Amino acid sequence: MFAFITSRILQAIPVLLVVGFIAFALFAYVGDPVTIMLGQDYTAAQREELVRALGLDQPFIVQYAKFVWAAVHGNFGLSYRLARPVSQLILERLPATIELAVTAAALALLVGVPMGVYTGIRRNSPTSRLFMVFSLIGVSLPTFLIGILLILFFAVLLGWLPSFGRGDVVHLSHWTTGLLTVSGLKALILPAITLGMFQMTLIMRLVRSEMLEVLRSDYIKFARARGLSERSINFGHALKNTLVPVITIVGLQLGGLVAFSIVTETVFQWPGMGLLLVQSIGVADIPVMSAYLLLVAVLFVAINLIVDLLYYAVDPRLRLDRRSMTGGK
Amino acid sequence: MNAVARFIDSDFLYSFRRSPVAIISALVALVCVFGAILSPWIAPHDPFDLASLSLMDSFKPPAFMADGENAYLLGTDDQGRDLLSGIMYGTRISLFVGVLAIGFALAVGITVGLVAGYMGGTVDAVLMRIADVQLTFPAILIALLVDGVVRAVLPREFHEKIEIYVLVFAIGIARWPQFARTVRGSTLVERGREYVMAAQVIGLSRARIMISHILPNVLGPVLVIATLNLGLAILDEATLSFLGVGLPPTQPSLGTLIRIGNDFLFSGEWWVTIFPGIALALMVLSINLLGDWLRDALNPRLR
């Protein structure tokens, strides 16, 4: 187990180094931050002062070393657009994105898995067909269109839910949460559905097809022959064995959740990291872009690691394989 | 039997005629493609002709609503442009970007896949490692960042002119690894076949063997993936344009139209954003369903 984790972490390091280098190259060579920050009118002395302040007058190696050293300490320099530390900007917006993504993922799992089980067991019932049509729409409609449609119905026509922002938030030292106020919870509903929709339909289809596969297998027939209850067969035996591919896809899709939070946050003007990124790209705010890139890389590497570990926990065969493999050598 | 007769008699056409979903999606896709290509000639209005625009005509509702006019079937936008015409021209741009981006991704992916699969060794290891790393990141995120970097490098006026090709590049570069991996997989299989050995024995160059001998035999599966990816590439473009980092309003794609219309959702002019949205969804859905059908029809195991 320990050897496994270590080797996975060692594999992740080159990935992070490559992404780090791209992030630095962006940071160092793209655009002219000095002109952007100074605006229209400036003197040569002002310009020189800013170049020195940003450390742009130093050689490549020094800048790279400084960049890595600073990044490891969570320091990504100043945003060109807002002239504030990037780490501070990101930390302010991190809670909003995490709350949105986690709610969306929970929604996708809590709705998607039961729907998948239901359509798998009663594959020809009218409800199942309805679910399947619904899932086709969920897979084909782009995220932003789902958001716009939800806003049109629930905010514009019915006026039940807010269409933008986070509502009232509560400050808990460094963390701001919208989960403790009524307006915060109401504001969370539409964005979470928008973001979770694709994952939800994906999970539903996956669980369904896996259930169909598993229910045909011999050990299910055997379980029936032993006279186990339907409930125990469906959930204790069948669902459990569908979980390995579901975990893979859900894990890998967490990355997609982060990526599409950018879109959802733009539609709903949700004050998270994704909205920050889009606003930064619009004006070529490189420090924010490179910090985001690094952060996302770390996040994805971590997700992949966790998915691998979950395999281990769910599928005992993997543990056996590894033991026999290493034992055989 | 000539080629036409063979085609009419083929399993392929048979399975197409047996599948209502495939027929309907093909029809919808054809309507989209022809409406898009022919838009300069068959669109009821020219949305880029400033002389024909009048602010008096702005926000006309669709023809089927109480205040609608028959001249503007789907209504008009904030500047009095006919929405139907705007959608036709927009679909043209969306399709253009999508097709070129997939073409670019195919070119890069096939080249990398062939070289990696045929050469093997370090070249293979390095190229596939790059593809794996890139596959960890969602394509839309890569396209967004590439687009952002190009935006930062180029001066603004120049950038607006070539944005359409920047998008092609960004979306294409975000989608090549999948093609590369598929081609590499089939190349590894083909490399061991006798016809490849024969070609090696008569001393053909490596490039010649890869291009004229292996390539035709590995193309099939890639083209199916390309169809499925075309829908995704069109969505990528729409998403970027919607986020405001894609095509500018002077060159509106469907995504740009949806973004423009989104500003008027609250003042009740829902059609400005909903109709382009429906057009986009229908086009992508039909392409995806066609791709699904093509995958099943060409997969002998499912017959």
From TrEMBL, chain A:
The listed locations are: Cell membrane
TM regions (residue ranges): 12-30, 96-118, 130-158, 178-198, 243-270, 290-314
Question: What does the UniProt keyword field contain?
Answer: Cell membrane, Membrane, Transmembrane, Transmembrane helix, Transport
Which superkingdom? Bacteria
Which residues does the UniProt record annotate as the domain ABC transmembrane type-1?
94-311
Pfam families membership: BPD_transp_1 (PF00528), BPD_transp_1_N (PF19300)
Q: One cellular component GO annotation, for this chain's record?
A: plasma membrane
Q: Which residues form a coiled coil?
A: none
Q: What is its main location?
A: membrane
Instruction: Tell me yes or no: is Ion transport among this UniProt entry's keywords.
Output: no
Membrane topology annotation: Multi-pass membrane protein
Which InterPro entries does the UniProt record give? Answer: BPD_transp_1_N, MetI-like, MetI-like_sf
Q: Name one GO biological process term.
A: transmembrane transport
Q: Which family does it belong to?
A: Belongs to the binding-protein-dependent transport system permease family.
This chain belongs to the protein called ABC transporter permease
Which species expresses this protein natively? Limobrevibacterium gyesilva
Automatic annotation (TrEMBL), chain B:
Q: How does it sit in the membrane?
A: Multi-pass membrane protein
Family, per entry: Belongs to the binding-protein-dependent transport system permease family.
Check the record and name the SUPFAM superfamilies matching this protein.
MetI-like
- What organism is listed for this UniProt entry? Limobrevibacterium gyesilva
Gene3D superfamilies (UniProt xref)? MetI-like
Q: What is its main location?
A: membrane
CDD domains from the UniProt entry = TM_PBP2
Q: Where is the ABC transmembrane type-1 domain?
A: 91-291
Give the record's GO biological process terms.
Answer: transmembrane transport
Task: Cite the InterPro entries for this sequence.
Answer: BP-dependent_transpt_permease (IPR050366), MetI-like (IPR000515), MetI-like_sf (IPR035906), OppC_N (IPR025966)
| Gene Ontology cellular-component annotations | plasma membrane
Among PROSITE patterns, the record links this protein to:
ABC_TM1
| Name used for this protein in its record | ABC transporter permease
Q: Which keywords belong to this entry? A: Cell membrane, Membrane, Transmembrane, Transmembrane helix, Transport
Q: Give the stretches traversing the membrane.
A: 21-43, 93-118, 130-150, 162-178, 214-235, 270-294
Its organism's taxonomic lineage begins at:
Bacteria, Pseudomonadati, Pseudomonadota, Alphaproteobacteria, Acetobacterales
Location of the protein in the cell: Cell membrane
For this protein, the record's Pfam families field holds: BPD_transp_1 (PF00528), OppC_N (PF12911)
